[in-house]
């Protein structure tokens, strides 16, 4: 990967997650931590991110994080999404979180006799013409760049429903199994989703193990299943299993 491509990937990752540590970015891009530090300093000087101790923060440049991330780790996300869709039986209800992996789950639900509830506007676009699916859209404030609905109305809508499955996204999973997120405005919605579901399934590719985030979404005991990849951090997977979470490798 050329330096320019690598730096663009760093900026893209920060736009999606809000923040990134040197170790996480180095593992994600397969380069040394020294290389990442040099890239972060250069990107900071160019005004494309804000350098902080241990990593960097995203700069709001008015771009569309959802569009940026949709093609990143596409094959990995699709394997995870396909495995998630296989858990669902016809006649059941599914709650889909924001994000591109949840969108890919929706793509694997086409033609199924299901009820799908979501705050993900990309899922709405994907399923709106599928007459086999009963589609329920939560209310709320539109976050255009993230293609999501958030706020009091979204949380209140979730208090009025109950579903069989929740497929949840994350910015990262801590080594102790805690699920974190960097987009703080989304966290109350995620917590309300967890309360509304019988079974909570976390969808997280290997780059999220261990991951980062400024706000706690839930403890590992609140999860039923985690679907990830064989490359996900082994120690974190052990912590999840010891907490009673089923860890599925896609």
Cα separation of the termini: 26 Å
Per DSSP, the total helix count is 10
Return the structural class.
alpha/beta
Order of helices and strands: HEHHEEHHEHEHEEEHEEEHEEEHE
Quick check: average pLDDT?
89
Low-confidence stretches: none
How many discrete domains?
2
Give the CATH level 1 class of the largest domain. Answer: Alpha Beta
CATH topology of the largest domain: Rossmann fold
Strand content: 15-25%
Instruction: Tell me how many strands there are.
Output: 15
Q: Provide the helix percentage.
A: 25-40%
Give a topology summary:
Layout: H1 3-17, E1 19-21, H2 22-29, H3 33-45, E2 49-52, E3 55-58, H4 65-69, H5 74-87, E4 93-96, H6 100-107, E5 114-118, H7 121-127, E6 133-137, E7 141-143, E8 148-150, H8 152-158, E9 163-168, E10 172-173, E11 179-181, H9 187-195, E12 197-203, E13 215-218, E14 225-228, H10 234-242, E15 246-249
Parallel strand pairs: 4-5, 4-9, 5-6, 9-12, 12-14, 14-15
Antiparallel strand pairs: 1-3, 2-3, 7-8, 10-11, 11-13
Helix pairs in contact: 2-3, 5-6, 6-7
């Amino acid at each position: 990967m050329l330096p320019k491509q690598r730096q663009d990937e760093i900026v893209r990752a920060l736009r999606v997650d809000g923040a990134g540590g040197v170790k996480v970015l180095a593992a994600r891009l397969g380069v040394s931590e020294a290389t990442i530090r040099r890239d972060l300093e250069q990107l900071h000087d160019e005004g494309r991110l804000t350098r902080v101790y241990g990593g960097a923060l995203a700069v709001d440049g008015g771009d569309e994080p959802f569009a940026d991330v949709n093609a990143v780790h596409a094959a990995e996300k699709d394997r995870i999404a396909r495995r998630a869709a296989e858990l669902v039986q016809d006649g059941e209800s599914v709650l889909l979180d924001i994000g591109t992996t949840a969108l890919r789950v929706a793509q694997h639900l086409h033609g199924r006799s299901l009820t799908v509830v979501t705050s993900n506007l990309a899922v709405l676009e994907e399923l709106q013409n599928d007459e086999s699916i009963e589609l329920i859209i939560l209310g709320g404030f539109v976050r255009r760049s993230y293609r999501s609905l958030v706020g009091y109305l979204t949380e209140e809508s979730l208090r009025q429903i109950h579903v069989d499955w929740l497929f949840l996204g994350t910015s990262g999973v801590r080594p102790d199994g805690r699920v974190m997120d960097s987009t703080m405005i989304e966290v109350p919605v995620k917590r309300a989703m967890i309360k509304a579901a019988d079974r909570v399934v976390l969808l997280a590719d290997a780059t999220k193990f261990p991951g980062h985030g400024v706000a706690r979404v839930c403890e590992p005991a609140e999860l039923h299943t985690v679907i990830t990849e064989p490359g996900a951090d082994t120690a974190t997977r052990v912590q999840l299993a010891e907490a009673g979470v089923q860890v599925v490798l896609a």
